[in-house]
Fold this protein.
Amino acid sequence: MLIYLDNAATTPLDQTVRDAMLPYLEGSYGNPSSIHAFGRQTRAAIDHARSQVADAIGANPSQIVFTSGGTEADNLALIGVMHAQPVEKKHLITSQVEHHAILDACKYLERFGYEVTYLPVNQQGLVQLEDIRAAIRPDTALISILHGNNEIGTIQPIEQIGHLAHEHSILFHVDAVQSFGLEPFDVSALPVDLVTLSSHKIYGPKGAGALYIRDSVKLLPRALGGAQERRKRAGTENILGIVGFGKAAELVGKHHIARREHLVQLKQTFIEDLRSRSLDIVINGHVDNSLAHIVNISFLGIDTETLLIQLDMEGIAASSGSACTSGTLSVSHVLKAMHLPDSVTNSAIRFSFGKDNTVEEIKAATEKIEKVVRRLYR
């Protein structure tokens, strides 16, 4: 019995999404920039998908720019915004627990003379508002904070952060890749200027993402060579991926409450069942203020790599943290930033649940986990 508990890395393609994509895999192949009937057909499909994504977050379709995924959207937000700033605006603020798409973009900007403040977090992985306030400078142009952490699930207070940013006329970017589809997110009500979204985290295809850009935001493109995406992102659009992303976003609007309730049940069952087995575990991150589908647990006395291999042999798919850094199996930068003991950081595993997981699977998984852990203890 194979049990997939790595939905934070990617989710399986929803059957309804697949069905929506098929016509554009087989018959509708026109270039959407062409003015003939073939092109107009695919252009209409992209426009429809743009409206579907916009509706899911309370945006206008004109505020959605399609990208190849969350990483490109994060890069476009940070580098595009900072390059569009006047010369005296050289400072941006982020946190030490961001996704590497943010952190690496910041490192890139530092090579060109921009200055970055990397905010610390507490032992639950939360950014403190007073630290943000203290970091703001006259030359601060942008604050970028992850909504729900992809490794530990901790949810940041983005509404309060956004208000603080806007009090100082600073733009605010939110990476909502993990929270989209699970946590309420309405850009018409939230003080956010840019928001990153990804298709394959919400049961859509890989290779599609989007950046929401408020109308007043100035941003320079990263990809040049065409007028696509209102000159924000050149290149012939990934029609298949965009259509699938649009359908997945539409399903988010219809099913997000039921999905979240189901995931909360799975997560509670998982934690309670593990605790009942008297294993030496520590739950990392904020237990209550966290995403419904992610739990990060340290199995004290067992190193992460060994446990992951043994779990895989038992048919359980989990991870050490971000899928973008898997393969290295180095200690998570998120757990390091939380200043946790080595015994905790060196034994941490991320389990993440999806809409297709069942309570029965969760109970079977905890039974197998106990079996593996006790075998390794021996």
